[in-house]
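Hello,

Our lab assistant flagged a job as stuck in the queue for most of the afternoon. It eventually completed. Since we weren't sure the result was trustworthy after the delay, we are filing this so someone can double-check. Below is the sequence as submitted and the structure that was eventually returned. Let us know if re-running is recommended.
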Amino acid sequence: MGFPKIRMRRLRSSETMRRLVRETSLSVDDLVYPLFIREGEGLKKPIKSMADCFHFSPDSVATEAAQVAAMGIPAVLLFGLPSKKDEIGSEAWAEDGVVQRAIKEIKKATTQLLVITDICLCAYTESGHCGIIKDGKIDNDATCELLAKVALSHAQAGADIVAPSDMMDGRVRYIREALEENGFHETAIMSYAAKYASAFYGPFRDAAESAPAFGDRKTYQMDPANSKQAMAEIALDIEEGADIVMVKPALCFLDIIHRAKQRFDCPVAAYNVSGEYMMLNTAARAGLLDKDSAMMEMLHSIKRAGADIIITYFARAAAKLLQQKSR
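-- returned structure --
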């Protein structure tokens, strides 16, 4: 039954044929758009390290969010840049913090958008680390207590999903207990469950002003060489109360996304991070590849690996292409 009776090219003979037999379907519904919030009014300032990305003030981000909702993108992920930093990152849970105010403004502007908030201290601490420093080391449990305060403050402001990205042990349990004890039973947790210590975070750390002042994050973020450990991290976060688990970055860890989807019965998110985003943008600007084609190939690879949710700075551009193709 080999050639010529079986000709694999028959099912590639036209765009319509390829659509008919396509195995992986990418949808606007799969996308989450990250946004950066900082102090100010009417602010929409380009981020030098990240093409077509901006710093927004809490008032101006509402307009952006309404446009995102109108495109059919179901959710945004908010990152805050405070006006001041301290040893413990206290602005992260301030009632009038930039993220807390942004949540309220977005909720006033649109009811059609889920608001996800990043739960971490790195942008709020003087050290730039994701936890508080004691005797030169990250104090895991003391940090978890503060992360729970941050998550609760975001839930009180109206966040639909809180997303701890710190990689402290046990932080999901701390957050889940704080939410439950305060009546936020429906606030979901999307855990950065398998977050690797990656070189691909560079542009983001510039955008979020969150680079560590000393050392690195290898004592809490995962070793890129490990995969079994990722499964253990994910299992623990689900046990502690995570509703959605995330793998970050995406491209170098497609195998981890696939293993997670095969093993766990919960939605799996993947973060198409800043370095991946700018790698493609830089190549496109140099004329080395077609940006739109490469973008869609990249996003399809993440979906094909098993991701149910794709967090990407390409969300708006991808949504436009997907809408054009559906007409």
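-- support follow-up --
The delay was a queue issue, not a problem with the job. The result is valid. The longest strand covers residues 31-38. The chain has one domain: 25-213+220-326.
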